Amino acid sequence: MLKKSANSSSSLLELWNEELEGKSDFSNYRTKLLDLIRVIASQRPVIAAANIVQRINVVSGDANQTTKSPQDLDAMVGAQLGLETVVSAIFDGSGDYAKTDHEAKFQIHRTFEGLLQQLLSLKWTEPSLIVIHGHYLDSLGLYLRHYPDVVASVVNKLFELLTSLPITIQGPSNNSRQARLQICSSFIRISRAADKALLPHMKNIADTMAYLQGEGRLLRAEHDHLCEAFLIMASSSGIQQQQEVLAWLLEPLNKTWTQVEWQTAYLSDPSGLTDMFADTQFMWSIYHTVTFFEKALKRSGTKRSTTAPQAAITTTTATGYLHPMSSHLSWILPPLLRSLTGEIKAAKSMTISEQASLLGETSKPTKGQVAPADGLLDVQREGESKENNIRNWLRGVRDSGYNLIGLAATLGEAFFRCIDGSSVILALMENVQVMEFRHLRQLMHLAVVPLVKYCPAELWQIWTANLLQPIFVHCQQALDYSWSSLLREGRAKVPDSFGNLSGSELKVEVMEEKLLRDLTREVCSVLWVLALPGLNSGLPSLEQLGPVNRIDSSLKSLESFASSSLTGFLMLNVGTALPALRITVEVFSWTDSEAVTKVIPFCGALIHLAVATNRAELRQFVGNDLFSSIIQGLSVELNAVVSAELIGLCREIYLYLSDKDPAPKQVLLSLSDMKQEDLLAFDDCLSKTASPKEQKQHMRSLLLLATGNKLKALASQKTTNIITNVTTRNRGTVAHHGPSAEEEDRIGLAGLS
Q: Distances from the Cα of 25 to the Cαs of 75, 367, 495, in angstroms?
């Protein structure tokens, strides 16, 4: 688990040397080691438990030693990751711990009970050791679920660790303050893992929180972390308990948040924000209020399926389910929307952390590290502390506000009918045309995608159409300009400000291209959402539509799909549809296979609509513009990874539209090496097989023949993405709304305020 460094001790076994193995692959290597440990622990739990405890005892050394060397701290962090993996493998349910024989259970219980008693007796006082101590305790969360008798001792120990550290109001580098926040995050992780084992101790935790707050020994950020843990505890006991806990936690916030005085003073015009920034304490109280609303939405309610949003909304409405946060949205949202309007230049300047992230110079934080929220936590340089504070506050409130709206949208009817849609759309879209790319991407990722995904069909006209039109119009123009610049001049021109980067022209070019690709993929993610099956339940499959030579009189009007297909609804709104269709055809020439991957389902939905309806304009677009663009996309070698899907789209267009419209055949005949007899032979081959696989193979062969083998995506055997000089990262196709496995470790702006 260790890598060789200047601090390394020759007495510790090291399996990684950066000089030999490289500097960038250690996290992947360590992940594979943990996977191996997980497999062994699931098969041989007794041996794994004994070995990890032995390892912890070796690396921890003398328990009475109050300080540790850097190499000892590294070894202790590695052992903690091993402990967490072993405990997870044994107790998380996949190994079915309940079926483990009695003797093995006894040995496992005794082993971890002994370790826990050691941890409870430790008296470490150094902040770095206290953080590791807290992580060792929260690594045992799943063990506590099965053996709840020791939960009270663990809770008391965490509070002891928290109060042993002094409260200091200083910069984000303060070790004690960061350690206190990490202990609070340990409460969150234990609440998630231990589940109902913590329920009997909720009153004790609440009383302790109230006592510490009354004594002035609990900062606002720490209090909010503990409240988040409290919400997780309540979520395991049912909706009624959640409602009671939310009422208790939100009542004091309601009194200040809804006051007209501060909104009038600070939110009526941009100069009001300047006045707020002069009141640092109030400024950060607003930030903490917004982020706590965000946490309350994340942690309450029941888990909802994300695969079929419309079906999920219908089901919850029909059964009378009401999310515990539903009754609070009416007073939370109006002041929040006022906070999101206004474009402030201070929020535009890019921080050093953001630049490093774009350049791929930062690695993902592991447990034990304080992670900045989306790179907001920057190094405070001399003379810039106040400016950075303001910039961080603006972007922190903005991103949390967007995420809060996105999370609220997942409530369905409860959200969309509790607030005027025009006020939300105005707040989100007011400054779209002057937004920098990274801001625009955050807006779409956190807010626009869930708003589109969860909007009830009867409200599409009010919400979805008005929301998407300004987004698509602006993004189509901005992306077209930036991609044209990149492909013609070798440099993407983006509106983002990189600050003062003297002598770093190449770095700026790399960051510009990364921002362009990120926004392109996010726009295509919106198109991906528009084609979700749950939002297009009324759209028949091509097989359901019957013979390919069906006459037009049996086709439906496009309007007949307006309430059962979001893609169909979009096509009826010309102002929104046109820029969306332009993006769709242009993306195939933009040399980004990930963006192409995201847009493929939308192309499929368009083909289905063109086949199912009698709308001549749509059929002409699909048979000519879309067909031509997909073939052009096959000339981009990077699209080799999705060439099979693109060939499938070509097959559907030709097979189902060529008898109804001359465009598909005209497109093929326009290819450089296509001959009439080749097309006739192709038609003959298609008529002799009903196998989609064979039809796709015929289409692939025809396209290679018709272009003189110039379609690089078909000729290439490569299966990896080699996008220029930009460091890529995997990301979900659409925004994920809800807690992730890592987020309990992310302290973010709480460490600054």
A: 19, 18, 33
Is there a contact between 621 and 603 (Cβ–Cβ < 8 Å)? no
Ordered alpha helix ranges (H), 490-634? 505-530, 566-572, 574-586, 593-612, 616-620, 627-633
- Band (pLDDT 50/70/90 cuts) for residue 214 is very high
Average pLDDT, the chain: 85
Report helix, strand or coil for 542.
coil
What does the alpha-carbon distance between residue 304 and residue 312 come to, in Å, rounded to a whole number? 7
Residue 385 has pLDDT above 70, yes or no: no
Three-point CA angle 722, 725, 729, nearest 5°: 65
Provide the pLDDT confidence category of residue 734 given band limits of 50, 70 and 90: very low
Which parts of 364-459 fold into alpha helices (H)?
A: 385-409, 413-416, 421-429, 437-443, 449-454
Question: Distance (Å, rounded) from C-alpha 9 to C-alpha 28?
Answer: 23
Q: Identify the residue with better confidence: 706 or 170.
A: 706
Say what the pTM is.
Answer: 0.84
How far apart CA 332 and CA 503 sit, in angstroms, is: 46
Rounded to the nearest 5 percent, the helix, strand and coil shares of the chain are 70, 0, 30
Phi first, then psi, for residue 123 (nearest 5°) are: -125, 40
Contacts of 396 (CB under 8 A, 6+ apart): 287, 291, 373, 376, 748, 749
The average pLDDT across 495-516 equals 81
- Range with the lowest mean pLDDT among 63-72, 84-93, 138-147? 63-72
Question: What is the residue-wise DSSP string for 85-120?
Answer: HHHHHHHSSTT-GGGS-HHHHHHHHHHHHHHHHHHH
Contact call for residues 287 and 220 (beta carbons, < 8 A): no
> Any residues with CB less than 8 A from the CB of 29 and at least 6 apart, and which?
16, 21
Token reading at 736: 């994920």
Q: How far apart are CA 347 and CA 387, in angstroms?
A: 10
Chain centroid to Cα 69, Å, comes to 37
What number is the average pLDDT over the span 477-496? 93
Q: What is the DSSP string of 119-155?
A: HHH----SHHHHHHHHHHHHHTHHHHHH-GGGHHHHH
Helix 151-164 vs helix 102-121: angle between axes, to the nearest 10 degrees?
A: 20
Return d(Cα 203, Cα 200) in angstroms, integer: 7
Q: Is 33 exposed, middle or buried (0-12, 13-18, 19+ CB in 10 A)?
A: middle
Helix/strand/coil for 48 = helix
Return the amino acid letter for 369: Q
Burial (0-12, 13-18, 19+ Cβ within 10 Å), 257: buried
Structure confidence by residue, pLDDT tens digits, 260-288: 999 999 998 878 888 898 898 899 999 99
Q: Which residues on neighbouring strands pair with residue 556, listed in sequence order?
A: 613
Rg, Å, the chain Cα set: 29
Cβ atoms of residues 368 and 80 within 8 Å: yes
CA 627 to CA 620: how far, in whole Å? Answer: 10
Residue type, position 630, single letter: I
Distance CA 203, CA 539 (A): 52
Domains and CATH numbers, the chain: 22-237 (1.25.10)
**Assigned token pair, 28:** 């992947």
Q: Which of 434, 356, 430, 446 is nearest to 396 (CA)?
A: 446
Residue 488 φ then ψ, to 5°: -95, -40
Residue 132 to residue 134: CA distance in whole angstroms: 5
Let me know how long the chain is: 753
> Does residue 191 surpass a pLDDT of 80?
yes
d(CA 747, CA 751): 6
Distance CA 527, CA 702 (A): 29
Q: What is the pLDDT of residues 652-685, one digit of tens each?
A: 999 999 988 999 999 999 999 999 999 999 999 9
List C-alpha distances in Å: 153 to 195, 204, 653.
16, 12, 66
Distance in angstroms (rounded) separating the CA atoms of residues 253 and 290: 10
